[in-house]
Amino acid sequence: MGSICSKCNQPAITFIRYNGTHLCKDHFLYYVTKRVKKELRKQATIRKNSVLGVAISGGKDSIVALELMYELFHKRKDIEFIGISIDEGIKGYRDESLPIARKHCDNLGIDHIIVSFQDLIGKPMDEIMKSSDLPYGACTYCGVFRRYCLNTTAKKLHVTHLVTGHNLDDEAQTFMMNLLK
Hints:
This protein is of the alpha/beta class and 181 residues long.
């Protein structure tokens, strides 16, 4: 027998490990939205005429970030949204995810910009990694270049807030990788 929601006794779809709560779909969506709102209040003030740039890879985390930001702010006519995707230039890597990102932006009526490493760095990632004198693995360079592309594009588009869909697992992984290095 499956678990039931700690709030309403409906079937639970998830278990929040760090607080021991089982949540149904409705309470999980409420919980996530409440946490995002709290984090927004802590990190940013969305003022009149803000431009929200959402980094959107086409993966589940960035799609959720896009949908949540849209849900929270789309009724404000003084807020503009822009979806920003990065094409790293890794053969076959973004073939499926970029169309997903485009589709979600189109469905919400949001402009979608795709920027490539080739355009901003001068070489695709596949070509960058062919250099034999690079002391670190591809992920090290790719992450730095991707962030550079996001920041440069956001600045060019006058984005006032750049939203990324990083989750707690992403943060913990980054911390552990840096600690172990």
